[in-house]
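Thread: quick sanity check before group meeting

JM: Hey all, I'm pulling together slides for Thursday and realized we never actually wrote out the predicted structure for the chain we discussed last week. Dropping the sequence here so it's in one place. If anyone has concerns about the input, flag it before I start.
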Amino acid sequence: MEEKIDYQIFKEAEKHVMELLENGLSKDKLFHTKKHTRDVLKNAEIIAAFQQLPEDDLNILRVSALFHDTGYVIVYENHELVSVAYAEEFLRSRQVSESIISQVKEAILATQIPQKPNDLIGEMLCDADLMHLTYDDYFEVMELMRQEWANVGVAKLNPHDFHMNSIRFFNAHHFYSEYGKKVLQPKKAHTLELLQKKVSRP
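JM (edit): ok, ran it. Output follows.
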């Protein structure tokens, strides 16, 4: 029984998840794509480096990031429940211990909106998942989300109503990790200012 996720298992997970998303995601997913998963993985590594997360914990975080949206292959709502099943199946096949699997599952479930992380890895994954709130190309990225929502039947919103919905989301959301609070929060505040200007234009 593996008492940790080593680098090799992480790289095998990466290959497994990218193949799963490549073959399984429908074309109506414009935001939740392989690119989003790669971005969240990269974001998680940035946060982990800032907070000097130990290597063993980093690999748990990496694998959690990889699997966090795999459930979109099958369902849209409550996709996290399917994501944890995919993660569990893969990690059991690599003889990873149940305690490590539980940590991965808990981190993935924490990303459900509203987010509810219970530990450091969960906090980092939640912040990595929503780091797009701070991106310079926020509006281009979120246009993909708006179209995806229309495609899958979540909501058909015009850009103004979508931005109003986003403002409500921004106000309800907060970052959890040290990196999130120190680095991401000011950038998110700037995005919110841009959003508010956009919706106030006649």
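AS: nice. The chain has one domain: 7-200. The two ends are 62 Å apart (CA to CA).
JM: adding both to the slides.
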